[in-house]
Amino acid sequence: MTTQNQLESYAEPGPLTTGGPGTTAALAALPSTLPDLILAVQGLLIHETGAAQSTTAHLRTTHQILAHLLTADSRPLTEPRPPAHRLTGCCRHFTLITVAALRAHAIPARARCGFAKYFTPGLYGDHWVAEYWNADTSRWILTDAQLTPELRAARGITFTPDNVPREQFAVAGDAWISYRNGELDPSRCGLGGEDQSGSWWIAGNLIRDVAALAKMELLPWDVWGAMPEPDAPIDDILAEELDQLAAITADPDTAAESRTRYNDERFRVPARVHNFLRRTEEPVID
Q: What are the Transglutaminase-like domain coordinates in residue numbering (predicted)?
């Protein structure tokens, strides 16, 4: 059961979802209602394409992202930018700004790392979504601001981005449980390419999800702690720890309890992490 203290915590910004000089007011001016907020986020960001990651895709904090947007275009963030002027990022950036804006309006929200089933048939695609507390129904609801009308039409997605069905998105704990029960081939989990899927990918996303539940929403390619190397075997001790984390995080009503395990140095985000794409150690917050 989600407690009032947990809701109050998720209604406040974390280190990566807070504004800064010149961005705090702009963040608070974003809409507080989901359909309008999703449209606003879609007018600010665009998903990177191709093998090369843009420089902005490596921005970790809300302040950095919004400062970059406002430096390039000083208009209010509620005014959509043309695609060529939007910040290039990934699913995590869409999620981060959604979560940051909701928290700026004191609405409990958190990022979730896992796997989307709605992009490619048969693939549990590496993905991030936001999860917010709906006070009217007293439940956590998944949202995906990346799902523009064009993307939904291209992929045949019929649900709306402000209410992603649970059966369409597997939080990492769900995927881990299914894998451990022999119900999910781990080669289906990841990006689908060579060395881009497997049990190690599920394990890494589970640790990222635990960090996000502790309000540390890292990049999808940030690596730290107990995250396995690509295709490396997972020892029994770590697997049992991940079993416990998965059981907690798979249920949105108990997911916040994973924060009691977050202080374990194997899971806690250090001051510096390894950027797997850049092959370098970087500070989490510059």
A: 74-145
- pLDDT of 49 over the 80 cut: no
CA-based angle 204:223:195, to the nearest 5? Answer: 60
**Nearest CA to 17 among 61, 57, 58, 70?**
61
Measured CA to CA in angstroms, residue 92 lies from 69, 126, 235 at distances of 16, 10, 29
Q: Which amino acid is at 237?
A: I
Task: For residue range 136-185, list pLDDT tens digits in order.
Answer: 999 999 999 999 999 999 999 999 999 999 999 999 999 999 999 999 99
SS (H, E, C) 106-170: CCCEEEEEEEECCCCCCCEEEEEEEEEEECCCCEEEEECCCCCHHHHHHHCCCCCCCCECHHHEE
Token pair 């599920």 is found at 202
Q: Retrieve residue 236's tokens.
A: 């029994």
- Kindly tell me the burial class for residue 160, based on how many C-beta atoms sit within 10 Å of its own C-beta (0-12, 13-18, 19 or more): middle
> Does pLDDT of 198 surpass 90?
yes
Residue type, position 104, single letter: A
Q: Which domain holds residue 92?
A: 4-283
For residues 147 and 157, what is the distance between their CA atoms, to the nearest angstrom?
9
Place of tokens 């949202």: 143
- Strands 45-47 and 87-89, how do they pair? parallel
Query: What residue ranges in the chain does DSSP mark as E strands?
Result: 45-47, 87-89, 109-116, 124-134, 139-143, 169-171, 189-190, 222-223, 272-275, 280-283
* CA–CA separation, 94 and 73 (whole Å): 18
